[in-house]
Design a protein that fits this description.
Elements: H1 10-22, H2 26-33, H3 38-46, H4 50-59, H5 62-69, H6 74-83, H7 86-94, H8 98-105, H9 110-119, H10 122-132, H11 139-142, E1 149-150, H12 156-166, E2 175-179, E3 185-190, H13 191-196, H14 203-206, H15 220-229, E4 234-239, E5 242-248, H16 249-267, H17 280-307, H18 309-314, H19 322-345, H20 352-384, H21 389-419, H22 429-454
Parallel strand pairs: 1-2
Antiparallel strand pairs: 2-3, 4-5
Length: 455
């Protein structure tokens, strides 16, 4: 299979596809087009103008188009849904898996949702309606309802035949789920276990009776955690012991990517403003609130500097070294913030003992970082100020203290927020940096003031 992102002559390959469309050479086009992965097919489709896209809907049957359609982003699917003939899209959506239909429907208006549901057969519509009842961000909203199950008394050969019969009606087959006559899950076996067993063996002889599962209302972060911790490719969803769905690793990878994006947005105070298609005014509204809050905190720092104007007048050489203290304190705080948020996000720091260990560790790390950076900064200042021991002492001591406190502050803030069951990432980098500026300024000039009175 050809991947256009690694194809040496991507432009040439695309040219031949376009050339086939221009010459109305359907067979040549289909041969080259289906040599591509579905993702690359989708990218090629989006690069076409309206007229050429219309040709593709004639040359691809709805099932073939559906394979490509499911790899598009939601806003791209909506655009196609509004421009392609309804009868054709009806058949396309019928060939989609339930979870992908749900992802599409959630972005539609109520009228269009009802229209799409009317296109589905009764079984599909029932599955989709059931999935729509689960709150976004829960296991139920992520699961698929197409999976392979077996009875404990089934033989290996009969299950193999069932898999062949199901074909591509099941999205992925990582495990065979074993249920009793009441629909309750009693065991599981992997495809590897299935292939390694003898054809006449019963499923109950090779299945594992201990398995990991979640309920439909479990938070998606728990699902991510369990799949990573136990190295699973799929996770069954049970309700009152009955198997109602399966969550596959490919869907979880999308969730992990989304969570990483949200953490990045929160740390940089840009939640909801990083998407490529976000309008500039929407981006402005998302970012302006944090910037105004930080502006007031910056004025507080400015006011604090002004309150030490007597010290500044007496020791004017203090001013050039203030950005060093503030910058290093901010850097240390951001490092500590990132470590704390990461550990809270992966559920490593959830009990008091581990939180205490994290704080002690960050304090000790901060002390060592502060001592080393303070000594280096003090030595440099001593030389560049013409061997002024006072300035060197103020810079070294205040830098050491600022790094220690900033490092601890960066770890404490997300932990406190987490205690209130809020997302710890809202302790954004700009907020911590600005607060560390305030702390660093106070320490710097307080140290200078003490030295000024002593000396």
């Amino acid at each position: 299979m050809i991947r256009l992102d690694q194809y040496q002559f991507k432009e040439e390959y695309t040219y031949y596809l376009l050339h086939s469309i221009k010459n109305e050479d359907k067979e040549a086009f289909r041969k080259d087009f289906f040599a591509l992965h579905s993702y690359d097919q989708a990218d090629f489709y989006l690069s076409l103008d309206k007229g050429k896209r219309k040709i593709l809907t004639k040359w691809l049957d709805p099932k073939e188009f559906s394979n490509m359609f499911q790899h598009l982003h939601s806003h791209e699917q909506l655009m196609i849904l509004n421009t392609v003939d309804d009868e054709y899209m009806k058949q396309v959506i019928k060939h989609m898996y339930s979870d992908d239909i749900v992802d599409l429907i959630t972005y539609l208006s109520s009228d269009k949702q009802a229209k799409v549901l009317e296109w589905l057969d009764q079984k599909q519509a029932t599955n989709v309606k059931q999935l729509l009842t689960y709150e976004r961000g829960t296991a139920g909203a992520l699961m698929i309802t197409e999976f392979v199950c077996a009875l404990p008394t089934d033989t290996i050969s009969s299950v193999m035949n069932r898999i062949r019969f199901l074909g591509d009606t099941v999205e992925v087959i990582y495990y065979i789920y074993v249920i009793d006559e009441h629909g309750k899950m009693v065991g599981v076996l992997s495809i590897r276990d299935l292939l390694a067993a003898l054809p006449n063996q019963c499923i109950q002889d090779v299945m594992k009776t201990k398995f990991i599962y979640v309920s439909p209302t479990s938070d998606q972060s728990i699902v991510v955690h369990l799949l990573k911790k136990y190295d699973l490719l799929a996770l069954p969803v049970l309700q009152d012991g009955k198997l109602v769905g399966v969550i596959t690793v490919d869907d979880i990878m999308d969730i992990m990517e989304e969570e990483r994006k949200e953490q990045l947005e929160d740390i940089s105070a840009t939640r909801g403003a990083t998407d490529w298609d976000t309008h500039w005014f929407q981006s402005f509204k998302k970012r302006i609130v944090w910037l105004v809050i930080l502006l007031f905190l910056a004025f507080a720092t400015s006011h604090l500097i002004h309150s030490f104007h007597e010290v500044v007048q007496q020791l004017t050489m203090l001013v050039p070294f203030l950005p060093i203290v503030l910058g290093m304190g901010g850097n240390a705080g951001i490092q500590s913030l990132a470590i704390a948020i990461r550990r809270l996000a992966i559920k490593e720091e959830t009990n008091s003992q581990k939180v205490k260990y994290l704080l002690v560790k960050e304090t000790m790390t901060g002390v060592l970082l502060g001592i080393v950076c303070g000594m280096v900064a003090s030595a440099i200042c001593y030389v560049v100020t013409g061997y002024n021991i006072t300035i060197a002492f103020v810079v070294g001591v205040s830098l050491c203290a600022t790094i220690v406190i900033s490092n601890l502050f960066g770890a404490i803030v997300p932990i406190i927020i987490n205690r209130f069951r809020l997302d710890p990432a809202i302790a954004s980098g700009p907020f911590v940096t600005t607060m560390n500026d305030l702390i660093g300024t106070f320490i710097y000039f307080t140290t200078a003031l003490a030295c000024y009175h002593v000396l």
